[in-house]
Amino acid sequence: MSKVIIMDHPLIQHKIGIMRRKTTSTKEFRDLVSEVAMLICYEATRELPLADIEIETPLVKTIAHEIAGKKLCIVPILRAGLHMADGILNLIPNAKVGHIGLYRNEETLEPVEYFCKLPVDADEREIFVVDPMLATGGSASAAITLLKNKGISKIHFLCLIAAPEGVKRLTELHPDVDVYIGALDERLNEHGYILPGLGDAGDRIYGTK
Ligand code: URA
């Protein structure tokens, strides 16, 4: 069963509150995407395994800890996920980054892959798929299916805002994937937008509307 972790940290709630306002500028919105992604990532990496290493402080030898194994790979779903990835890279600068691009087939309404580029050793890494808005869950589920079809198994999903409909679909289709959510909203409207939400995350990050 998926773990669904909804952040209750005051900093995250405060920053998401500013993001929701329609008067928030593109620059401020973009900075907040990056900051909130970093804060969510802090929680999402809580259970990463550590290895002991011997080091020398200026005074003595001691045992310190480092993240064990092949480390991480961040996979933003284009285009809105890109800025979340940038924020997380501030925290984990050595992570590798893969990209997945999906568009919606207007007849079937299902997501179709148009771009996928991953590190060659992605299947040995802990993968963090990022997309600001988990709305219907279609893109997130399709991106994760695509990764699994390439033999990747250690997958987490991070978003800023989720609708219950998206959480249900994602966790039913991928019960092995833990989901980290900045805020869980009420529902989707008839156009697939999250309410109360924050509008179109990609447009607000890039100022395209
Ligand atoms: N994508 C967005 O950017 N916003 C929503 O509300 C839903 C999907």
UniProtKB/TrEMBL annotation:
Known regulation of activity: Allosterically activated by GTP.
Residue numbers binding 5-phospho-alpha-D-ribose 1-diphosphate: R79, R104, D131, P132, M133, L134, A135, T136, G137, G138, S139, D200
UniProt keyword annotation of Nucleotide-binding present: yes
Residue ranges of every copy of the Phosphoribosyltransferase domain listed in the record: 7-208
Involved pathway(s): Pyrimidine metabolism; UMP biosynthesis via salvage pathway; UMP from uracil: step 1/1
Enzyme Commission no: 2.4.2.9
Annotated binding of uracil, by residue: I194, G199, D200, A201
Cofactor(s) needed: Mg(2+)
Catalytic activity: UMP + diphosphate = 5-phospho-alpha-D-ribose 1-diphosphate + uracil
Cofactor binding: number and manner: Binds 1 Mg(2+) ion per subunit. The magnesium is bound as Mg-PRPP.
Pfam families on file: UPRTase
GO molecular function, one term: GTP binding
InterPro entries hit by this protein: PRTase-like, PRTase_dom, Upp_B, UPRT, UPRTase/APRTase
Origin: domain of life: Bacteria
A GO biological process held by the record: uracil salvage
Cellular component per GO, a single term: cytoplasm
Keywords (A to Z) from UniProt: Allosteric enzyme, Glycosyltransferase, GTP-binding, Magnesium, Nucleotide-binding, Transferase
Flavoprotein is among the record's keywords: no
Entry-linked Gene3D superfamilies: 3.40.50.2020
SUPFAM superfamilies noted in UniProt: PRTase-like
Family that this chain belongs to: Belongs to the UPRTase family.
General function of this protein: Catalyzes the conversion of uracil and 5-phospho-alpha-D-ribose 1-diphosphate (PRPP) to UMP and diphosphate.
Name of the protein described by the UniProt record: Uracil phosphoribosyltransferase
Species in which this protein is naturally found: Anaerocolumna sedimenticola
Gene field: upp
